[in-house]
Amino acid sequence: MAKLPGTAGVSVLGDKSMEFYRDPVSFCEQRIEKYGTRIFQSRLLNKPTTFVCSVEGMRELLCEKSSVFLKDPTDVMHNMYGDNIVTSNGEEACLLRLSLTSLFTGACLESWNDYITRVCERCLNDLSTSREPESVYPLFKRVGTELVLGLFLNVQPEEQLFQEITNLCTLHWHGLISAPVSVKVPLWSSGFCTALEARDQLLDIIRDKLHTDTQGFVGSLGSLPLPEPSCASQHLLLFISALIPKALASLLTSFTMALSGPQMEETRRRARSDPVYLHHILLEVQRLWPPFIGGRRIANQDTSLGGFLVPHGYAAMYISHAVHRDPEVFTHPHDFLPERWSGRNSGQEHLLCSLGNGPRNCIGTQLNYVFLKAACVYLLQHYEWILDPPSQDLQYKWLPVSRPSNPPTVTFTPPQDQ
Predict the structure, then answer these.
(1) Which of 1, 183, 289, 301 has its CA 20 to 30 A from that of 246?
(2) Of the candidates 356, 214, 349, 366, which has an alpha carbon nearest to the alpha carbon of residue 297?
(3) Residue 386 CA: distances (Å) to CA of 133, 259, 280, 389
């Protein structure tokens, strides 16, 4: 078995976390070119880490060896959200998924269609009224927040509680993007400490909802046979977190940018009338601009990835941006080509990992797609749009959620045939 290309360096001094967080795309591209392989090692978070940038390696990591590579119980995600379906491992994770799956599929998913449509109509119905450029990322984040709080917690935007929860979710989110150091002194608290306080306030609101509300998702979740009394509140904390609105906003922003301008008029027209073609567009948006850069696991035994030895205790991180640009699978990997999904890549949606893959993929993948499709259909049916001004800096930042560094501004107008 071959040794992993690259070097894990020495403790602390050899850590490459800052370089990775500054520009994870360049970090991986430079090493792929240097080592001539899409699997290599470096040191991240002061831990020897295998970086997986190929479709084959991602499938091996997340599917075939999902029981070998486990979630890291010491990471910041676990500190901020506690025990839930994302942070658990082994039998516990399987049982939680079995318990929760019914709330995200089938009849439950269908029952949310009307509400999702109403939110799209309420948030997106007057974009062309002023004919002024609209900053789309914050707009779509508001849409996602309304969807999440309405569906998961039965809280509507006209309620005072809505703004309170929104503010707390923002503070809580900062715990994921700040140094995990809890410090509190008179007149000042660290970002992590403030995030923990916001988490506790959110949990108080959630527990109250679970005790008093018997309707909708929160009522159904409260009646499930979950393993611990605190389990329902920990899951609701995850489901209403800023992660979901930010992911939705990321994908909707990328969709809007990809289909912007008169040169994409025919693409918009075809997507408006052809649901299959729209599906292929959304797959291509997820391929090129995944909302999350990837995910991390820890090897619980000596194993291998792509024929390279991965020792026990090594971390393994799949990089969705690089996996989705694997030239062995996706020809012209950097080009926006929805047609690829009716050609060579037909039926290969399972090769994407924008929301994970395998038995531990995001439990809300179908719901996320319903959200995304409903908003995109509404935009296509009611608007044409262009970047305004046309020359904008559209360079992406990839952490903690992918989006343009400077939120793009777009002018929406009614379709010409209306």
Answers:
(1) 183
(2) 356
(3) 9, 9, 21, 8
**Residue 402 amino acid letter:** S
Looking at residue 264, what DSSP letter applies? Answer: G
d(CA 45, CA 29): 20
Question: Whose structure tokens read 């995990």?
Answer: 180
Euclidean distance between CA atoms 224 and 233, whole angstroms: 12
The pTM of this model reads 0.93
Which strands form 409-413's sheet, in the order they lie side by side?
Answer: 134-135, 409-413, 384-387
Dist CA 357 CA 365 (whole Å): 10
Residue among 293, 73, 76 nearest 175 (CA): 76
Delimit the domains of the chain by residue range: 17-413
Give φ, ψ of 73 to 5 degrees. -70, -5
- Establish whether the linkage from the previous residue to 415 is cis, with ω within 30° of 0: no
For residue 400, cis peptide bond before it (omega within 30 degrees of 0): yes
- Torsion, CA 85, CA 86, CA 92, CA 94, rounded to 10: 80
Distance, CA of 269 to chain centre: 28
**Identity at 404, one-letter amino acid code:** P
Scored b (16 or more CB within 10 A) or e, 370-395 reads: bbbebbbbbbbebbbbbbbeeebeee
H/E segment holding residue 309: strand 308-310
Structure tokens at 347: 């039926």
Show pLDDT as tens, one digit a residue, over the chain (418 residues).
Answer: 899 999 999 988 899 999 999 999 999 999 999 999 999 999 999 999 999 999 999 999 999 999 999 988 766 677 778 778 888 888 888 888 988 999 999 998 999 999 999 999 999 998 988 778 999 999 999 999 999 999 999 999 999 999 999 999 999 887 766 544 444 434 345 567 888 889 999 999 999 999 999 889 999 998 888 877 788 999 999 999 988 999 999 999 999 999 999 999 999 999 999 999 999 999 999 999 999 999 999 999 999 999 999 999 999 999 999 999 999 999 999 999 999 999 999 999 999 999 999 999 999 999 999 999 999 999 999 999 999 999 888 899 998 899 999 989 999 999 876 5
Q: CA-CA distance, 308 to 39, in Å (whole number)?
A: 8
Terminal-to-terminal C-alpha distance of the chain = 63
Q: Which residues pair with 409 in a beta bridge?
A: 135
